């Protein structure tokens, strides 16, 4: 799988971190996850541990949740 810097979670974390005027190092310190993990998360690494992703998202008041997708999106996933 390829890394996708533009995936929703990568964009969300990057944008929220910047709006909070935090460096990646500071976000790592505040959330208790490693700096390498923060960097990989923001760069869209496809196979990150969900518990650590949630640890970062919780800092911003969010969590991973199942989200329904449209039939069109479902069809496009099969391509």
UniProtKB/TrEMBL annotation:
Pfam families: HTH_3
Superkingdom, natural source: Bacteria
Residues of the HTH cro/C1-type domain: 13-45
Protein name stated in the entry: Helix-turn-helix transcriptional regulator
Origin species: Bizionia sediminis
């Amino acid at each position: 799988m390829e890394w996708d810097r533009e995936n929703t979670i990568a964009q969300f974390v990057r944008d929220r971190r910047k709006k909070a005027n935090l460096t990646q190092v500071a976000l790592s310190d505040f959330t208790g996850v490693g700096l390498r993990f923060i960097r990989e998360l923001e760069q869209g690494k496809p196979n990150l541990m969900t518990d650590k992703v949630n640890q970062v998202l919780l800092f911003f008041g969010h969590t991973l949740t199942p989200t329904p997708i449209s039939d069109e999106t479902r069809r496009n996933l099969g391509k």
